[in-house]
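A.,

Following up on our hallway conversation. C-alpha cells first:
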C-alpha cells in the first residue's frame, strides 16, 4: 500500500482552471437570464447581462468562454449571423469592453440563425433537401469575419462543412485578421448527446438530421482523418466532440500535434445533473472524474458547462 502522503506526488494528471472553457448562451429576445430546463443550472443571458456573467467567471479564475447566440430573426440564409449588430457581435463587444483579458471564442455556424435549423444553406441535392457545402462556405467566412471584427480572439467553425477551415483562414487573412485563431470542431460526431443543446440554443432542425455532415459514432479512422484535414487547412486548435464517449479518438488526435480541445456536451452535462439530482451519483466527484479522464486521454482544453462549478471546487 502506498502511503497517502506519497500519492499526491505520483499523480499524473491534475485538472486546472486554465484547462477550462465555459460555454455561454446569449439571447437577443430576453431581458433577464432565463433557465434552460434541460440543463439545470445553465441560463441564457440577455445581451446586457452577458458581460456580468463573464466577469463572474473571470473572478473565479476561468480564462476562456465560448459564445453561442440566439438571434431575434431567423431566415433561410442566416442573415442575422453576420449582421455587425447581431447578437454575438454585440455580446463580444460588451465582453471585450468590460473583461478585456477574457479569451473570447465564438461558435461559427448557421443553425441558430436559419429558420430550417441546419448548419448552412440548404437546397435540393441528389439525396433530397440537404445542406449545400460549397455555397455555405462564403456564409461561414462572413460570420467569422464579423465575429473577429467585433473582437473575438478565436473563431470556432462547427458546421463540419468540407473546406471550412481553409476558407475561413483565407478570408480572415485577407481582412488583416491574421492574429485571430481557428479552433476547428474538427471531429464532430452525429451524437444524440446534443439533445439538450437544441433547447438551449433553439437550434433544432425542421427536416432531416445532421448525419450527412457529422461523423458516424462508429467510425474512428474517418474521425482522425477529419481532424488531420482541418490541421492541413490551417486550424490552430483541433476539437473532439462529444468528449466522454470518444476518449479513444481524443488520444489518437493528440498525436497530430496541435493543441486539442474536448467538448463535454450538453447531454453529458444533463446526464450527470439528472443522476445527481436523484441522489444516484455524487455530483462533484462525478464531474471531477469525468474531466480528469478527458484530460488524461489527451485534451489540452476542455469545454464544459461545469467550468464555473469546477473553478469553485478547485479553490476548496
Ligand atoms: C452547432 C453546435 C451544436 C453544438 C455545438 N455547436 C449542435 C449540433 O451540432 O447539433 C452542441 C453542443 C452541446 O450539445 O453542448 N453546430
Ligand atoms: Zn450548426
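Then the amino acids I'd put at each of the 316 positions:
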Amino acid at each position: 500500500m502506498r502511503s497517502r502522503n506519497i500519492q499526491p506526488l505520483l499523480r499524473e494528471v491534475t485538472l486546472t482552471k486554465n484547462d477550462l472553457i465555459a460555454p455561454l448562451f446569449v439571447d437577443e429576445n430576453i431581458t433577464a437570464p432565463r433557465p434552460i430546463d434541460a440543463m439545470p443550472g445553465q441560463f441564457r443571458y440577455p445581451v446586457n447581462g452577458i458581460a456580468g456573467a463573464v466577469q463572474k467567471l473571470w473572478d473565479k479564475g476561468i480564462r476562456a468562454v465560448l459564445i453561442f447566440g440566439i438571434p431575434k430573426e431567423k431566415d433561410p440564409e442566416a442573415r442575422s449571423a453576420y449582421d455587425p449588430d447581431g447578437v454575438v457581435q454585440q455580446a463580444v463587444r460588451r465582453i471585450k469592453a468590460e473583461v478585456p483579458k477574457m479569451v473570447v471564442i465564438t461558435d461559427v455556424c448557421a443553425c441558430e440563425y436559419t429558420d430550417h435549423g441546419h448548419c448552412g444553406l440548404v437546397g435540393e441535392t441528389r439525396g433530397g433537401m440537404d445542406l449545400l457545402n460549397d455555397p455555405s462556405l462564403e456564409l461561414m467566412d462572413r460570420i467569422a469575419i464579423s465575429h473577429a471584427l467585433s473582437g473575438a480572439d478565436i473563431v470556432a467553425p462547427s458546421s463540419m462543412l468540407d473546406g471550412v477551415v481553409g476558407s475561413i483562414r483565407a478570408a480572415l487573412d485577407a481582412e488583416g485578421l491574421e492574429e485571430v485563431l481557428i479552433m476547428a470542431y474538427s471531429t464532430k460526431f452525429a451524437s444524440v448527446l446534443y439533445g439538450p443543446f437544441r433547447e438551449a440554443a433553439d437550434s433544432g432542425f425542421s427536416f432531416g438530421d445532421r448525419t450527412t455532415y457529422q461523423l458516424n459514432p462508429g467510425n474512428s479512422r474517418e474521425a482522425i482523418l477529419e481532424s488531420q484535414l482541418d490541421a492541413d487547412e490551417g486550424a490552430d486548435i483541433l476539437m473532439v466532440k462529444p468528449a466522454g464517449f470518444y476518449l479513444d479518438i481524443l488520444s489518437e488526435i493528440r498525436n497530430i500535434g496541435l493543441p486539442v480541445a474536448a467538448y463535454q456536451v450538453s447531454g453529458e452535462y444533463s446526464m450527470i445533473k439528472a443522476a445527481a439530482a436523484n441522489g444516484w451519483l455524487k455530483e462533484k466527484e462525478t464531474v471531477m472524474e469525468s474531466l480528469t479522464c478527458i484530460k488524461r486521454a489527451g485534451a489540452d482544453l476542455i469545454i464544459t458547462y461545469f467550468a464555473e462549478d469546477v473553478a469553485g471546487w478547485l479553490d476548496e
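Residues 107, 109, 111, 119, 158, 194, 197, 210, 265-266 surround PBG (ligand 1) (CB under 6 Å). Curious whether your intuition agrees with the design.

B.
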